[in-house]
Structure formats: structure tokens, C-alpha cells
């Protein structure tokens, strides 16, 4: 008999709102630790980073303990739209205390949550400075078990290329910042959203769906997953529920979870990447390119 929490809705998402609630609380806490570490690593907390943090906290369902205190402190600071040196210092102390004395949660995804949070933190203001770049290199050294896996291997490659000539230029750091924003799906300075969604790395064109094995992942704004499958089948596609060696096209939904790397969606993309590296021809693209432009 199926577990009552295991049922999925028409978009392939958990139907029960309480699904994995405790695990999601762990993700919020570990992500916040990473974000705070990234935002404060250069010992300077600028206005955009404070706004980023406020937006991030505002979009959380849980505001308890340190998270609630930070939410209240940020709102108090921003009431007059002026951030004084004293207010900045007080918030820095609170953030650093939260990192040092925050909850220690045992979970297989904690380290990845913290690292993704850290990545979001260092690109919160749309820039990476040399201090933040140095901290990023240190953090990477702590995550040897994931840096060879996609998409983190892309960041490792970018860091390596920046260091080749022993010169760290502003343009290189800006490119690295853009790459991280694409991977995390978050660009606060562009969209004003600290939560974000899925990766925006993939936008390969699709010429035809006829006789193509197509797999969908994430949540779509153009309709439910079942409705999109029917439309694709009308166009001649052969829809799949999972990525296999027979897959021709993987389409990523626009409304993907901010935790996409941990989810089934992230694993589908990772599986497709692994197959491509093994010589299989798979197009990975997004909903805008594959579906909306064709008026499905």
C-alpha cells in the first residue's frame, strides 16, 4: 500500500503540503548558515546584501529562533531606509553568532545546502570581489566529494581558468558571478528575488518533437505536466517519466523548486549530463525555448 505522503499532483509534485516538513526545516536552516557565511565572508555587509537577506527571510514559511530574530532585526534596520555603521555592526554580530551557534543538523544534504547557500550569499549583490573569491576557493576545498559532479564542476573549471595567469580580473569575477547565478537560478539584482528557481544554463533549440523521446522535469507555467505530455504526443513525441539512454530531449520547467539540485529534477539533469558525457545525444532545454515559443 502506498504511503499517504507519496502521492504526486498533476505537476509531479508532492500533493500533501506536509510532505517532508522536517526535512525542509533542515534545508532552511542549513541554507541560511551558508548564505550568512557567503554574505559576511568579506566582513562587509552592503545594502543590497541586506535587502537580499530580507527578501530571502520574507519568503520562508518558518520564522523561529535565530531566523525570526534576524527577520525582526533586518526590518528594524530598514524602517528609515538608512543603514548606520552601528546598525550594520550589530547585524554583522548577529549573523556571525548565528553561523557559530546555529543548529547542527545531521542530514545527507546538509553540506550541499550550506554550499549552495554560500554560493547565493557571495553573489547576492551581483558581484564577487577578490576576498569572496578567495573564500570560495577555501570552501571548495571542503567539498571535494561534490566539486567533480555537475554543476559544481563548472565552477571548479572557471576557478581554475581564472588562476591560470595568476591575475584575477574584474571581468573574470563577473563571469564567474554570472555562472553561479545561472546554476543557482538566483539573480537578486536583476529580478529582486532571493529565492530563485532552477538553473538557466540550458536553452538548446528544439527543431522537432516527431518520434523524439521527451522527458519533462520541474513545474511548468504553460500547463500541468500531464497536459503538456498530451500536447507533445500530438506533435509526435514519445514521452518518458525518467531519463534513459533512449532520451532525446529533456525539458526543464520554469517554476522549478529553489532546491532543484537536491530534487528529482536535479537528478534527471545530472543523469542526462552523464549520458551526454558517455556519448549519447540528448538535448537539454527549458520551457521557454521548447514549449512557449511553439505555443503549446
Description:
By secondary structure, the protein is mostly helical. The chain folds into two domains: 21-191, no CATH class; 213-294, BRCT domain (Rossmann fold), CATH 3.40.50.10190. It is 49% helix and 5% strand. The chain has helices spanning 21-40, 47-58, 66-77, 85-101, 110-122, 130-142, 152-163, 170-184, 188-191, 225-234, 264-277, 287-290, and strands at residues 213-217, 238-240, 249-252, 283-286. Strands 2-1-3-4 form a four-stranded parallel sheet, sandwiched between helices.
Which key phrases capture this entry?
296 residues; mainly alpha
Kindly state the number of beta strands. 4
Helices, by number, come to: 12
Sheet of most strands = 4 strands, parallel
Percentage of β-strand residues? 5-15%
- Average residue pLDDT: 76
Q: What separation lies between the terminal Cα atoms?
A: 36 Å
Summarize the structure.
The chain is mostly helical and 296 residues long. The chain is built from twelve helices and four strands, in the order αααααααααβαββαβα. Helix 1 (21-40) packs across helix 4 and helix 1 runs parallel beside helix 5 (110-122).
Could you give the topology of this structure?
Elements: H1 21-40, H2 47-58, H3 66-77, H4 85-101, H5 110-122, H6 130-142, H7 152-163, H8 170-184, H9 188-191, E1 213-217, H10 225-234, E2 238-240, E3 249-252, H11 264-277, E4 283-286, H12 287-290
Parallel strand pairs: 1-2, 1-3, 3-4
Amino acid at each position: 500500500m502506498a504511503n499517504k505522503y507519496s502521492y504526486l499532483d498533476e505537476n509531479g509534485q508532492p500533493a500533501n503540503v506536509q510532505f517532508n516538513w522536517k526535512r525542509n526545516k533542515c534545508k532552511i536552516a542549513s541554507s541560511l548558515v551558508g548564505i550568512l557565511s557567503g554574505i559576511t565572508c568579506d566582513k562587509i555587509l552592503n545594502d543590497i546584501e541586506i535587502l537580499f537577506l530580507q527578501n530571502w527571510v520574507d519568503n520562508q514559511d518558518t520564522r523561529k529562533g535565530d531566523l525570526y530574530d534576524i527577520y525582526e532585526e533586518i526590518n528594524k534596520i530598514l524602517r528609515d531606509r538608512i543603514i548606520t555603521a552601528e546598525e550594520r555592526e550589530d547585524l554583522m554580530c548577529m549573523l556571525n553568532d548565528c553561523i557559530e551557534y546555529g543548529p547542527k543538523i545531521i542530514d545527507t544534504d546538509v553540506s550541499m545546502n550550506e554550499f549552495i547557500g554560500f554560493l547565493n550569499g557571495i553573489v547576492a549583490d551581483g558581484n564577487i570581489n577578490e576576498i569572496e573569491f578567495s573564500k570560495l576557493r577555501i570552501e571548495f576545498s571542503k567539498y571535494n566529494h561534490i566539486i567533480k559532479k555537475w554543476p559544481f564542476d563548472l565552477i571548479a573549471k572557471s576557478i581554475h581558468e581564472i588562476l591560470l595567469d595568476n591575475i584575477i580580473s574584474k571581468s573574470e569575477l563577473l563571469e564567474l558571478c554570472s555562472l553561479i547565478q545561472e546554476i543557482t537560478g538566483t539573480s537578486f539584482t536583476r529580478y529582486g528575488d532571493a529565492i530563485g528557481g532552477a538553473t538557466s544554463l540550458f536553452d538548446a533549440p528544439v527543431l522537432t518533437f516527431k518520434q523524439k523521446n521527451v522527458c519533462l522535469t520541474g513545474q511548468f507555467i504553460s500547463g500541468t505536466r500531464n497536459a503538456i505530455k498530451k500536447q507533445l504526443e500530438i506533435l509526435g513525441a514519445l514521452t518518458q517519466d525518467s531519463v534513459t539512454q533512449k532520451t532525446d530531449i529533456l525539458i526543464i520547467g520554469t517554476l522549478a523548486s529553489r532546491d532543484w539540485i537536491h530534487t528529482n529534477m536535479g537528478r534527471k539533469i545530472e543523469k542526462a549530463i552523464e549520458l551526454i558525457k558517455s556519448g549519447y545525444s540528448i538535448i537539454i532545454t527549458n520551457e521557454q525555448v521548447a514549449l512557449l515559443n511553439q505555443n503549446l
